[in-house]
Protein: tRNA-specific adenosine deaminase
Amino acid sequence: MKKNNEFYMKCAIAEAKKAGDLGEVPIGAVVVLDGEIIAAAHNLRETTQNAITHAELLAIEKACETIGSWRLERAQLYVTLEPCPMCSGAIILSRIERVIYGAKDPKAGCVGTLMNLLEDSRFNHQSEVVSGVLEEECGQLLSDFFREIRERKKAEKQRMKEQLMIDSEE
Structure:
């Protein structure tokens, strides 16, 4: 079986689903080197209560450990959501060759939406960017996740309102 962008993005989506199962924002990432996945990770920010435990950073850290170097010069990073400024910085500093992402991030995307840090020639390294790979599927994971949160909050608000009514009748 030929491994292509869609194959690796499906692996990143599998990681994103692990995050969602934990109640994390469902974002997943894999690092590929010479056609093999050398690292995979998903968001853990809520679990760790640590702002920097984004999928990309965790995957980059694992990839560096795997190859024994901070330089990921021939590596590709597949991520379900467009990287934020923090993750874009780590991508530049780790010298990742190519970044392939699924859904755009209108609030924090720094790989084309708000700006494009990865292809900015003022930095000493640039990464090739491919966007929109399995975009609909990646975006749907996020849409479903946030819709469920809104529905839970609405239901909780309704329960509290009903409880207040019961309490006031007593």
Observations:
- The longest strand covers residues 36-42.
- Residues 102 and 133 are 5 Å apart (CA to CA).
- The longest helix spans residues 135-169.
- The two ends are 68 Å apart (CA to CA).
